Amino acid sequence: MSRGVGLARVILPDVPFADRFPLIPGPSPLHPLPALSPELGLDLWIKRDDLLGFGGGGNKVRKVERLLGRALRDGAEAVVACGSRQSNFLRVLAAGCRRAGLRCEAVVMDMPFEPPARPAFRPPTSGGNADLAGLFGARFHALPDGSWEELDEARRRLAARLKEEGARVMEISVGGSSAEGVQAFVEAAAEIGEGFDFVVHASSSGSTQVGLSHAFRGTRTQVIGIACDPEPEMAHDLAALSSQFSAASGSLPMTADEFDFRLGWEGEGYNIPSPEGQAAIRRMAQSEGILLDPIYSAKAFAALLDLAKEGSLTGRVCFWHTGGLPNLFAFGIPGQSTE
Ligand SMILES: Cc1ncc(COP(=O)(O)O)c(C=O)c1O
């Protein structure tokens, strides 16, 4: 298996972050996609964070290493997080806490949403990540559906209550997107080097995009984050996260318009599979034998297919597979029919 298409010259800031709590044995695989490349007229590669392995894999393993490094350094005995019941992040965080000997407490909703649109879609409440987080010993505090802000507020209340009871608690932001999460992806960028014209990936809570964009700033590589949530103001959240990272690392912050964040493939919304994404799952499975998840990587790959078709992607392109596989089983495997 090939590893890299040029030695990494990506600039790593000398950052005073806490140590990593190691969960990943080495770089995730990077390899060409020989069937899709000629079909799309690209030199198309895939970065396999889905194969990171620990706790079922995915991009979140990189963030969890850093977050648990801080939790252990600060002497925490429990982490308090929040998310959707089918969150990949909560699954991996729960597995990491098991390894680190920490308690994992999380406030969950089946379908947190961005007001005013409360989606009618009901995601599965069992199977997939929900059951795996339980297997890894996470303690879920379930709330009726509400906004992301309400979910985050409930997380803060839970943390305050546990602190009052005497627990040493570390609070973790949605999706693990913090300066540590960004740092994890600044470092990950070095695994593929500077040989790509484009990197395309799923973007949601932001640290994957902010980290990769910081790492490739000023290089030939253009990072394109594909929205999985219908939130046009997300570019401003990316800029805010960049400022947070810059304050911790001393690097120059990026402004909202420096991020290439694309809406248009999120379908009906977060946690809702889209027809284009389901078609993208079939295409990847049937041409390359690789599985995508319906909530993140399928939507990002659907975007890549469209961008290639319209000629906006050219040359050497890396699809960064961010994982999420358990949800393919929870939400259902797309059949042969065209949706
Ligand atoms: C499988 C998968 N891909 C992509 C993302 C998006 O990553 P980020 O939250 O860093 O934007 C997530 C996070 O929710 C995820 O679980």
Notes on the structure:
It is a single chain. The protein starts with 29 loop residues before the first strand and ends in an 8-residue tail after the last helix. Helix 9 packs across helix 10. The strands form two sheets. A six-stranded mixed β-sheet has the order 1-2-10-7-8-9, with helices on both faces. It has a four-stranded parallel β-sheet with strand order 5-4-3-6, with helices on both faces. The radius of gyration is 19 Å and the shape is globular. The chain is an alpha/beta fold and 339 residues long. It has two domains: 184 residues, Rossmann fold (3-Layer(aba) Sandwich), CATH 3.40.50.1100; 117 residues, Rossmann fold (3-Layer(aba) Sandwich). It contains eleven helices and ten strands. Helices cover 37% and strands 15% of the residues. Bound molecules: pyridoxal-5'-phosphate. Pyridoxal-5'-phosphate binds next to helix 3, strand 7 and helix 7.
The fold-level CATH name of the largest domain is Rossmann fold
* Helical percentage: 25-40%
Could you name the ranges where pLDDT drops below 50 across 5 or more consecutive residues? Answer: 1-15
Shape: globular
**How many strand units?**
10
Question: Per CATH, which architecture of the largest domain?
Answer: 3-Layer(aba) Sandwich
Major beta sheet, strand line-up: 1-2-10-7-8-9
Q: What's the CATH C level of the largest domain?
A: Alpha Beta
What class do helices, strands and sheet pairing give? alpha/beta
Q: Tell me about the biggest sheet?
A: 6 strands, mixed
Question: What is the count of distinct domains?
Answer: 2
What order do the SSEs take from the amino end to the carboxyl end, as H and E? EHEHEHEHEHEHEHEHEHHEH
